[in-house]
Amino acid sequence: MDNSQNASYQAGQAKGQAQEKGNQMMDKASNAAQSCKETMQETGEQAKAKAQGAADAVKNATGMNK
């Protein structure tokens, strides 16, 4: 293998490694985004439940629940 073939091989290796590293980073970013989405959904559900509980407490306190 001459120098130009070796350089070409090395460049191909570096390119492949960079692509794989990029894919790994994209996977990590995607996983982080999914985790954030799930956390926000849970937070929204908790807020909704608290608001419903507060509304029920007001109804009970004012006698509107009867």
UniProtKB/TrEMBL annotation:
- List, alphabetically, the InterPro entries matched: LEA1/2/D7/KIN2 (IPR039624)
Q: Where are the transmembrane segments?
A: none
* Start and end residues of each stretch annotated as Disordered: 1-66
Give the compositionally biased regions (Polar residues): 31-44
Composition bias (Low complexity) maps to 10-24, 49-66
Q: What is this protein called?
A: Stress-induced protein KIN2-like
